[in-house]
């Protein structure tokens, strides 16, 4: 991933659409090639182009992300959001503390310094949303150069699209 900034209007729009939502579904590609989704609490923080989630280090999605960092995050509450991104795993105690709040304490029943917890940081690469019911999706203008770091080469004619 390069340091190219996300389009400012896209960040603002996504921040507004995410609003006060506190639960998102994180979808990963499993180590056997399937897809798996699970709910994650969203900490209260301003959207800056990435979403943060606390997870147990031994959770299946952590192993999935280690094998394939490309993920999808979805949220819905009158407006449906689909966010594609690259997930990073961090055990940095300071970052975990920044993501910690009362919801996390209830969700996990421990504190941010628990070594069994990690922080998942999803850098959003593409996003679209639907104003329900039945409207076509709207693409959100996000500009970020993608560099394939630590990802296996694609087979055959597969390509990553912008």
Automatic annotation (TrEMBL):
PANTHER family: PROTEIN BLI-3
Annotated General stress protein FMN-binding split barrel domain residues: 14-135
Protein name in the entry: Pyridoxamine 5'-phosphate oxidase
Organism: Propioniciclava tarda
InterPro entries in the record: Split_barrel_FMN-bd, Stress-Dev_Protein, YdaG_split_barrel_FMN-bd
